[in-house]
Amino acid sequence: MGIEAKVDAGVLSIRISGRFDFGVHNEFREATKLADSGVKLIEVDLNGTDYLDSSALGMLLVLRDKMAGDKSAIRIKNSRTEVKKILEIANFDKLFTLS
């Protein structure tokens, strides 16, 4: 459970396991600080995420602002069906690349 983050060749990979909610806010914020070091792409892997709420959506929007609103700079990948449905209802498929 929690958040793992690493930078490799200009790509920041953030893997979120368990609940993606306000409880991981500080961990997520620490992970996004890694984007300050010349990162060109951020991949958020939600394969292990079984729940997300509005605070998680807000954290993703803050991450988008950090990358100057560039849709192609952030890829949200491996979302489970129910998580992807929430992202689509919130129109995040228009703000981020979902794969």
From TrEMBL:
Q: Domain (STAS): give its ranges.
A: 1-99
Q: Which residues form a coiled coil?
A: none
| Domain of life of the organism encoding this protein | Bacteria
Q: Which species does the entry assign this protein to?
A: Methylomonas methanica
Q: What is this protein called?
A: Anti-anti-sigma factor
